Amino acid sequence: MSLPESVFDYEARLAACARGEQSALRDLYLQEGPRLLGVARRLVRDTALAEDIVHEAFIKIWNGAAGFDPARGSARGWMFSVTRHLALNLLRDQGRETPFSEDHEVPTHDDDAFDAHSHSARIHRCLEQLDAQRRRCILHAYVDGYSHAQISARLDTPLGTVKAWIKRSLNALRECMG
Predict the structure, then answer these.
(1) Which of 52, 110, 142, 166 is most solvent-facing, going by the fewest CB within 10 Å?
(2) Interatomic CA distance for residues 68 and 79, integer angstroms
(3) What DSSP designation does 73 have?
(4) Topology of domain 1-111, per CATH?
């Protein structure tokens, strides 16, 4: 049973999660769990895997709630982003586990899943072109959900440098993906 989005305060629930209030995580799960499961299922095409992804997403949401920055986007969008990244990472990792050779028949994919996998592989190739420190900044920001200040502290690097690296790296990724 979920509340209308206009009534449900995602940011307040994430702030409560950051304070360690488990009831806030339960509220987020009840509100968005079914929709997040739908996103994951649509990407990985497997209900059991999708359930695992949503479980892992809520662990990341719980652990990363303190790093959520409302200035960078909506709380609800952040939750969907966490889930989507986990699903795409799983698809990418599965692609690594099954080497492709000319002797094997190409499996048929649903267009959405295939496009997501193809897009994920392209992003991965573009990320590999970045300097290791800059790649770490991007991953901390967009996969782990850390704020610039948290990344700065984790990498023991000045905040201005982290912000510049992220900005330049995003521009490089856009160009590479273009």
Answers:
(1) 110
(2) 10
(3) S
(4) Rna Polymerase Sigma Factor; Chain: A (1.10.1740)
